[in-house]
TrEMBL record:
This is YCII-related domain-containing protein. It comes from Pedobacter insulae. InterPro entries: Dimeric_a/b-barrel, YCII. Residues 1-18 form the signal peptide. The keyword Transmembrane helix does not apply. The lineage of its organism: Bacteria, Pseudomonadati, Bacteroidota, Sphingobacteriia, Sphingobacteriales. Keywords: Signal. Residues 57-124 form the YCII-related domain. It comes from the Bacteria.
Length: 153
């Protein structure tokens, strides 16, 4: 009986200790609020997996034009704080071409944002969308992104 009681008390003590919150001495409430962070510094985004679309018959000139529009749309979405991360993927057997992390938790809004992309509209690209839980600080890298590249095509 004594051993069972001691075991229960130890387990309860461990449970309480495991639930204690660590307070961040560097916490910036204004920044957390601006970035939409929850108390743990995280938030919901939409992860977009771009993949090869069903339209495989466009001419090279038309495809090049649509992908130029795709790149311009990426810049536009960044400028309105809706696109946090974008980038291509290496060749793979799933036909995934790239990713977006959109600054919205709404899959419907994400679909509306994707509808503004010329390559998606023309079905050169298709997309799988997922809610994704990540650091709210992810958007902060955009403030320095333009300072780290030396040359681009």
């Amino acid at each position: 009986m004594k051993i069972a009681l001691i075991t229960i008390l130890v387990a309860l003590g461990l449970s309480v200790n495991a639930q204690e919150k660590k307070i961040n001495p560097n916490y910036d409430e204004a920044l957390a609020k601006k970035l939409g962070a929850e108390d743990n510094g995280m938030k919901i985004y939409v992860l977009v997996m771009l993949k090869t679309g069903s339209n495989t018959t466009e001419t090279k000139a038309k495809s090049d034009s649509l992908f130029a529009g795709h790149m311009a749309n990426i810049s536009r979405l960044v400028s309105i704080n809706k696109l946090i991360v974008a980038g291509p993927l290496a060749k793979n057997d799933k036909n995934y071409r790239g990713i977006f992390i959109l600054n919205t938790k709404s899959l419907e809004e994400a679909k509306e944002l994707l509808a503004t992309d010329p390559a998606v509209k023309a079905k050169l690209l298709d997309a799988d969308l997922f809610n994704w839980y990540g650091s709210a600080a992810l958007a902060a890298y955009l403030t320095v992104e333009d300072k780290v590249w030396k040359a681009r095509l």
